Amino acid sequence: MSSKKILILDPHQIQQKINRIAYQILEDNFDEDEIILAGVIARGYRLALRLEKVLCQISNLKVRIVKLELNKDSSKLESAIDIPLSDCENKVIILVDDVLNSGRTIAYGLGVFLNIRLKKLRSVVLIDRSHKNFPVATDFVGLELSTVLKEHVDVVLDEDGKEDGVYLS
Hints:
Keywords: Coiled coil, Glycosyltransferase, Transferase. InterPro entries: PRTase-like, PRTase_dom, PyrR_bifunctional. The protein is an alpha/beta fold. 25% of the residues lie in helices and 32% in strands. It has a single domain, classed as Rossmann fold, CATH 3.40.50.2020.
């Protein structure tokens, strides 16, 4: 496998995907006053911030951002969330990550919220690689990308969005 990076999505295309996902979230939650975007550290959190910005522009929906830290290498659920879990009760939670590969991160992220009552639990990924080892499905996807296991998808989301890109290597 060569070390050459192939640009899959440029900054403009990434923003188009984020805009579309934001409208889908709004349509799915048109009767809600508030939703919580739980962004998986680090790129999932950055994606959640971008979604929040668009949602606030297109709706009156109150959007709360939560940082979700998961130990993806652990064989059991190890997580930390930056608000009390009880603040999420009876709310719509949208789990946000950059790439869905094996499904472990989404599965662990869902596990964080299993012991509290929720209105709804949804998931967002910018890229779905379709190599699931876990029985998870995403509700909102920017791009489904068929890759071979040896290929790597790298999502770059910088502070100002000018250097954004999705690369295949």
